[in-house]
Design brief:
Blueprint lengths: L5 H18 L8 H20 L4 H12 L4 H23 L8 H7 L13 H11 L12 E5 L6 H12 L4 H4 E7 L2 H13 L4 E7 L4 E7 L1 H5 L2 H4 L6 H14 L1 H9 L19
Parallel strand pairs: 1-2, 2-3
Antiparallel strand pairs: 3-4
Helix pairs in contact: 1-2, 1-4, 1-5, 2-3, 2-9, 6-7, 12-13
Length: 281
């Protein structure tokens, strides 16, 4: 949200105040950093359960496990925080604003992981970096969209700045931009997933190790799912990512799924194998 607009600045401050209040919702029974981290998980899991058919079952189980740690009134407070997040996202999208919802509250509450030496890029610096490093031409690449990646994504500030940059050139990030983000910290994965999802950006956010390419989990934003981006811009990272993408394709196109099921029946049988052997591709 632009600080040049007093109305938007008031909205931003009110929303950040709400997030800080959520961190205190248990009144010390659970620490502020852990409560805020659980709120991020609540929001991410709630959105994913409603939109991602590949991971819905596991995410629903995660949501139920999380709920067991909170009283009904506290859980209702999480819900009200999600409502406030939806309101802030609506104000942003109505005004073509791309701003990080979580970085300031996350650091203010003291939730940063010191062992991972986390530092978050200030919003103004992120926009400056986008202006310096990204194309200034309003011409799409040959494939018809831009691809961005950030494998130490934090809360997604740099990716939001990139989306804002392309929007300023006249492109629609929901149609002309696809993103892969990754981070080791699940809280950063949740923040980036929510930031990109609520700004309508097609993205795959991976919780994994960028150096070893070990993937532990992946999150598809609604725009990525509904835009069928898995066919145009699959986002490989680790072996588990391939499995998730393949499941998504089979759900998205039942005929494709049926053909893949039949494929082993028509595969050549080796000397030491049978027609029932599972394919690895």
């Amino acid at each position: 949200m632009s600080p040049d607009n007093p109305f938007l600045e008031v909205l931003r401050l009110e929303f950040e105040k709400t997030l800080l209040q959520i961190a205190d919702i248990t009144r010390g029974r659970i620490s502020r950093p852990e409560t805020f981290s659980n709120f991020l998980a609540y929001c991410a899991l709630s959105l994913s359960v409603c939109t991602d058919p590949v991971h819905a079952k596991d995410r629903h189980a995660g949501l139920e496990h999380l709920k067991s740690n909170y009283k009904d009134a506290e859980w209702q407070g999480f819900y009200q925080g999600l409502v406030a997040l939806c309101g802030a996202a609506t104000h942003n999208t109505d005004r073509d604003q791309f701003s990080d919802f979580f970085a300031w509250p996350y650091t203010n509450i003291g939730a940063r992981n010191k062992a991972l030496k986390q530092d978050f890029t200030p919003d103004d610096l992120a926009r400056l970096m986008a202006a310096i490093t990204l194309s200034q031409k309003n011409v799409l690449p040959e494939e018809g969209f831009f691809t961005m990646s950030d494998h130490a994504c934090g809360s997604g500030t740099l990716l939001l700045a990139a989306a804002d940059h392309f929007a300023g050139l006249g492109f629609n990030p929901a149609k002309h931009l696809v993103v892969q983000a990754a981070d080791m910290d699940v809280r950063c994965v949740h923040m980036t997933y929510l930031n990109l999802a609520f700004h309508g950006i097609p993205a795959v956010v991976v919780r994994g190790n960028t150096l070893t390419l070990e993937e532990y989990d992946r999150w598809y934003t609604p725009a990525y799912l509904w835009g069928k981006w898995v066919w145009r811009a699959p986002m490989p990272f680790g072996e588990d990512g391939y499995v998730s993408d393949e499941m998504l394709k089979r759900i998205d196109e039942p005929m494709y799924g049926a053909l893949r099921q039949l494929e082993p029946l028509f595969s050549p049988v080796g000397a030491n194998s049978t027609a029932d052997a599972a394919k690895n591709t």
